[in-house]
User: Fold these one by one.
Assistant:
Number 1:
Amino acid sequence: MNKVEWLTAQLEKATTEREQLTAELEYERQRQTELRPYLVPRIRRGIIGNSRYAVRLRQQIKEAAQSSESVLIFGEPGLEKDNIASLIHHGSPQRREPMIQLTCALLQTSGAELFGRANGKPGLLAWVGQGTVVLNNIQDLPPELRPQIVQLLNTKTYSPVSRDRESPPAPQSCAARIILISERKAPEFVQCTAQQLKIPPLRVRKTDLRALLDYNLNLYCRSRDIAKPTISPEAVRRLQAYDFPNNLRELTALVKRAVTQGDQASELTEELFWSKDSKKTRFRLNLLKTYPQLRQFLQSKFWPEGLNYGITTWVFALVVILLFIGPQTRDQNFALNLFWAWWWPLILLAFPFVGRLWCAVCPFMIYGELTQKLSLKLWPRELKPWPRQAAERWGGWFLFGLFALIFLWEELWHLQNTAYLSSCLLLLITAGAVIFSLLFERRFWCRYLCPIGGMNGLFAKLSMTELRAQTGICSAECTTYQCYKGGPAKGEGQETDGCPLYSHPAQLQDNRDCVLCMTCLKACPHRSVAVNLRPPGIELWTTHTPQAYEVALLFLLLGGVFMRRLPAVVQQWDLPLDLAAFGPHLGGAVLALG
């Protein structure tokens, strides 16, 4: 061979190799184009936790990854079963091959996109090669495709789609691994798959909950570039008591909402977490939907600000003055008679109908709020955050003790028939509201320490009305939590300072911590807040969680009945007790209350 022939041969060889390389690059480009809408790029997370369920699941994934056989993954919604499929693929020898995922409900009934067409466009099974094909929600697969998928699993062959008059094409072999995902076991596919993985729901993996919370918290805080808060033990216990019907997906959403609502708090408390509870929605009628005029009234400036600052403030001041300077007996002092003969009975009669409504127009806290606002203007400062843990533990017992002292004061000094002492009682409670409003933000006194508020919150549980929020709307649409934190007007919502009791309407388990001020109703732009008509006291057998101090307060109030009738009790039982003397009277009153 001369030199010219040799050069010609080399040139032809180079040309052939270039054409071959060009064809391969074009094929790969077209392959990526066809697969791109379905590609699963990476693993989202591993299996978090060290429970026996987590350990066993990790072992099952490892075993499935060593084989190229088909796998059925099934379990409840929200378990991230597609991520399990990713773990299997990326742990296998074919990890460098593409992995695609298809939603079965969206597949063509002909199967053309999966199997391709005879003498036409190849299907995804051909393009994926030795990669992995994930068929998500196999229970939604069109019935027309089920026999072909069974054939694919059993024989690893498939037939491209042909026209009606064309002869059936020869079956083609499939080199891809098939992974099925289902929300139930899917018996017709169990026999066709080499391995089945049942993913345990989150409710049986409660020992993994702390690790999952920590992982989600780390991930979300890192994505937002904020400091990671801690989660209070009470919050963890509340979450551990919840069943998580939407499993891991719901847990992730709860953590994100808690961090956002916490507004960079150093600790996430149980009040920042809430979850769907069907018991909250049983036997309820939303009065705001039934009577639109009621919504307009409750969202108006009159309720309760106009009423409080236009009427209640001045009436209360007038009553206190009349009690001091007017006649000192009930038969001569209108204000004293109004306080003991009308106000107290009307409050008690109102509990079964409107719960803690009185607290929305309570003059004690109106003066507390006025003092708080005035002091912040004269002395700008940051008010202290609530010591929630101490308040939750001891606040109820504080108001119990204060109520007991007020009972004894009323009995021993005859406040019901002594006007100036009754005025002192009103001023004492007002002083508590003012002092704690100067120290802490919002209405700390109302929520934890006020003796009247404690009694109101207790009896409000018997009410036939309640204020709640629709948890689904709050979870899906709300990102600002203006009802809780306050903020500028958004949508049809109004500008507010947030709930004065730091209660989120979607988290309320009973009526104790809601004063029906309607701040949340005014702030919400999504119409999530509802004022419901319900069977009286329904929460006592549904969502109620009893507190020890509430039981003690109930017995104290019952003892108050006997204390009021102490002279009759002494006379009927012929007890050697001289109620005219202070010491025996005090002893008898304490025994009656106890």
Number 2:
Amino acid sequence: MTALDYIHILKTELADALDYYRLGDGDFIFQHDNDPKHTAKITTTYLKEEAKYPVLPWPSQSLDLNPIEHMWRHLKLKLALYEQRARGVHELWERIKIEWETFDRDDCFSVIAFF
């Protein structure tokens, strides 16, 4: 994924999510890590000047401070429990959707409480 791909996702998916949850200026702070596509000049310029999203400063050499990283780990563990590997991308994606839907509010809170 490139910085341009990332910006496209921000313009479409993030914008749709903000609309869906009725979040506007001052209702949220955007957070991402120091992945090169996140820190690329084109991305930081987009977030600051076009989208005008407030961005949480992120330490340069940080551990996984983002709770979603721990959710991904739990998802990978669930996928590893299948007896057979997925027979392709479509089957893998279906398994991901099934397992993601098993996470409930308590799972999310337990990951956040870990911090």
Number 3:
Amino acid sequence: MELRNMTLASLSVDGRGSYGIAASAVDRSDELYTYLRITDIRDDGTLNMADLKSVDDEKASQYLLKPNDIVFARTGASTGRNYFYDGTDGEFVYAGFLIKFSIDPVKVNPQFIKYYCMSDAYKGWVHSYNTGSTRGNINARTLGGMVIPVPPRQQQDGMVSILSALDAKIKNNIEINENLQVQTQALYKAWFVDFEPFGGV
């Protein structure tokens, strides 16, 4: 496989990373933008929707994520944790402890970058910047200089096609499991708390 070593910055639209808005989170409101924080991003790159907050700031709209953006946690134990935005999770304004790169779809398949940033090679690169301290810290310039081995476009597309199909199946299974858990809890409550009659007898 022929690989080209490209930096993350060189694969972005504007050649640089951007820091999020420095604003406090407020209680979730349909009148305000949803605020994406480090704590909302899981280690596997998915979102924890359980405790989302909003942001109330006049400049918030300037920090809205757009499809093919990827944000990285830049400090703390979560340094390097990342989330690729494709628009399906709703609108988000990204917080100040996140760094955004807008991936250029002409230069690379954006989802290839998503999957690279879930790889052991990427995690090893992040770990190399945690020099004995439990509190990591990576800035936009460092992230932008990260070298990514990029295969030809056809191979990128093939890899993304397979991995995204597996992702879709995993997501579907998670939703099925969550639904089953809800049903199970409802039955426990009905039978062991409310002592409703069991219809199966």
Number 4:
Amino acid sequence: MSDTVHKTVEIHAAASKVWAFLTQPDKINLWMMDTPTDIQSAWEVGSPLVFKGDLHGIPYENKGVILQYEPEVLLAYTHWSSLSQRPDEPAHYGVVTFRLTTHGVITTLEFTQTNAGAYATERHINFYWTTALGLIKKLNEKAD
């Protein structure tokens, strides 16, 4: 089994709207978890990105550093999660990438997470991202 998760979804919305759901904490909270998540970042290359919350009674912290930030085009950051049950060490960090491409009225959102390891199957990362990307699509396509 590969330790990389890759998914693509086509969204009938402008890239600017999709981008907001990837970078604005109030909008991220609409799709990330079913409980509120505290999201901290300066949203610039080199800045930390931290997600903290409680998932069904289990406190968690997802963290990393922003590697690439091109508004409405590309967001990439290193990623480690306490939910992975792997030590917080460089070898256990992966990279999460969101790439947006516009084709007329459709924005294609391409998602990749590297170094997911056994966490990809044991913790149902594939299921999570299928659901999360579906929510991002639904929220973006909803009438304003």
